[in-house]
Write a structure and sequence with these properties.
The structure is a single chain. The protein folds into 3 domains: 171 residues; 72 residues, no CATH class; 126 residues, Sandwich (Immunoglobulin-like), CATH 2.60.40. The N terminus is likely disordered. 43% of the residues lie in helices and 22% in strands. By secondary structure, it is of the alpha+beta class. The chain has 9 helices and 21 strands. A 5-stranded antiparallel sheet has the order 1-17-3-13-14, with no helix packed on it. A 5-stranded antiparallel sheet has the order 7-8-4-12-11, covered by helices on one side. The protein is elongated, with a radius of gyration of 46 Å. One of its GO terms (cellular component) is bacterial-type flagellum filament cap.
Length: 477
């Protein structure tokens, strides 16, 4: 604010202090009004944020109700856990299944023959070179892989094993010493006959190099038999199981779709019974969770719109039109009938759910138990029906109020604009107070100058009167 030095000298009045007090008195009510408006706007924005969050949480609960699996949870048991394990989805039919595991799936394994490198004793990186070139592996299920060591590169049994491990996605290699010298073991990365190596072709840069010894034909080879450079240690095999007498094969020990909605994981050969049952209480839990989520939402409505007469305090959205609109639409949705007119479950009351005076829901356990026993499918359809189910209605309701173009977002945008307007009001108030200060200083300064002039005149007159009195007294003497 503007300042003027030596104000009040003429009159003796503290003009600076007087102006500050007058400006402060003029500013305070207008500033308080601005602050009240700002607080009100921020409270409403906070309330809308809480409302949006509460609706989103309730929407998550409603989406769960739109899934049949929420009302039907499957549990599986096996009589021989050492043979297999089983997991099921909500689509699995209930029942018992006799399973006989005939074979486990296994990966092919082979090793270089014992006399493959007779007389060679050193296969370290700096030892005897096998030679460079290409090894091409063909597989029973089709396709091939070519492993390469460039011409001139150091080539040992270990370096070829490293090349296979880095370049192949279908084989792993290792080098072991069985006491008679180093040998390379090749193992299929995946189980099943389709992943078995049927042949190994070698294209050596030097036809006379030892790499040529790796060539072999593995197709049709029996276990422990040898062809070319390799002996078959273990044949590739598909898993084979009999389920209620029906033979099923897979390339892995995880078998899906042999029993609808059930996955079997095989551990060993043998017999086991797979029991698929429904987890008790899943549907009841789903209904109870819905009621709990709904009541939590209603509780938030009550807090946001509350008014306490005793303390004269109000909720953040007390009297708010958006909150009233949300409440009205929600109450209408849960009250409207759902599904065909001949369905035994068309409203919440049909399954024993009533509305309390405070708007919350209450479950009649006996009535709900009866519906779950007698009309379970109708109850589930009440929530999950794709066209008219309550879950779909509630999901649409939540999306309408929380989506990008929702009334809550539009209202929040409007409040943001009002909040920016508050800053404009503060700037205008500061400008207005500066002008008021300047005007008061000008007026009081003029008054001060006038008082100073009057004081000077008064002093002059007083001096003249004193002089006249003195002259009069002297003349009388």
């Amino acid at each position: 604010m503007s300042t003027i030095s030596a104000m009040g000298v003429g009159s003796g009045i503290d003009i600076r202090g007087l102006v500050d007090q007058l400006v402060a008195a003029e500013r305070k009510p207008r500033e308080m009004q601005i602050e009240r408006s700002e607080t009100r706007i921020k409270d409403q924005m906070s309330g809308l944020g809480r409302l949006r969050s509460a609706l989103a949480t309730f929407g998550d609960a409603a989406n769960k109700l739109n899934q049949a699996s929420t009302f039907r949870q499957i549990e599986t048991r096996v009589t021989s856990e050492g043979v297999l394990s089983a997991t099921g989805t909500s689509t699995a039919p209930l029942g018992n299944y006799d399973v006989n595991v005939v074979h486990l799936a296994q990966a092919q394994r082979m090793v270089t023959r014992a006399d493959m490198f007779s007389g060679v004793t050193d296969f370290s990186a700096s030892g005897t070179a096998l030679g460079s070139g290409e090894m091409t592996f063909s597989f029973e299920g089709g396709g091939s892989e070519t492993i390469t060591i460039a011409d001139g590169a150091s080539s040992s049994l270990n370096s070829w094993a490293a090349a296979i491990n880095s370049q192949s996605s279908r084989l792993t290699a290792s080098v072991v010493d069985d006491g008679s010298g180093p040998r390379m073991i090749l193992t299929s990365a995946e189980t099943g006959q389709a992943n078995a190596v049927t042949g190994i072709a070698v294209n050596a840069d030097d036809p006379s190099s030892l790499i040529g010894n790796f060539a072999a034909t593995m197709s049709g080879l029996a276990q422990n038999d040898t062809d070319g450079g390799f002996t078959l240690l273990r044949q590739a095999r598909d898993a084979e199981v009999q389920i209620d007498g029906m033979t099923v094969t897979r390339s892995t020990n995880e078998i899906s779709n042999a029993i609808d909605g059930v996955t079997l994981t095989l551990s060993s050969t043998g017999d086991s019974r797979v029991i698929v049952g429904e987890k008790q209480g899943a549907a009841r839990t789903a209904v109870e969770d819905f009621v709990k989520a709904y009541n939590t939402l209603i509780g938030e409505f009550s807090r946001l719109g509350a008014f306490d007469k005793d303390s004269n305090t109000a909720g953040l959205l007390n009297g708010d039109a958006t909150l009233r609109s949300v409440q009205t639409q929600l109450y209408r949705i849960i009250s409207d009938p759902v599904g065909p007119t001949d369905s035994p479950v068309r409203i919440l009351a049909d399954m024993g759910i009533s509305t309390e005076k405070d708007g919350t829901l209450k479950i009649d356990d006996a009535r709900l138990t009866q519906r779950l026993s007698e009309d379970r499918e109708a109850l589930v359809s009440f929530f999950t029906d794709g066209d008219h189910g309550l879950a779909k209605r509630l999901g649409g309701f939540v999306d309408n109020f929380t989506g990008r173009d929702s009334p809550i977002n539009s209202r929040n945008d409007s409040l943001q604009r009002q909040l920016r307007g508050i800053e404009d009001q503060r700037e205008r108030l500061d400008y207005s107070m500066e002008r008021l200060e300047m005007r008061l200083i000008s007026q009081f300064s003029a008054m001060d100058a006038m008082v100073a002039q009057m004081n000077q005149t008064s002093d002059f007159l007083s001096n003249q009167m004193a002089l006249m009195q003195a002259n009069t007294r002297a003349a009388r003497r």
